[in-house]
């Protein structure tokens, strides 16, 4: 298969706490667990959690290596944007906050006007955009 718009995308990130990450992304946002691997404590062994929507062409992989943890280093511009195409439900934002998220103001006024930004437990930002995705 050639690399094109039909190619599946995996976004991989380190996490300090897989349990907290799962609470936010699965219980909070509503993603499904696609795959899970519990690693050991020896160097090179890692635990991971892959989450996504079953019909999506992407998934998020969260990795933790107990023997040599990688500290997440997100910036304010490390965003995962989900286009809601309408009002962002306040109950969804509340659920994300109840599951470890923190609603924040974006340094980019565009996202404050067109969405809601929530930090996950590792500080990475999820933007729920009120806009619809358009290729034009």
UniProtKB/TrEMBL annotation:
Domain VOC: 5-131
Stored Pfam families: YycE-like_C, YycE-like_N
Lineage: Bacteria, Bacillati, Actinomycetota, Actinomycetes, Kitasatosporales
Organism (species): Streptomyces alfalfae
PROSITE patterns: VOC
Protein name (database record): Glyoxalase
Source taxon at top rank: Bacteria
Regions annotated as coiled coil: none
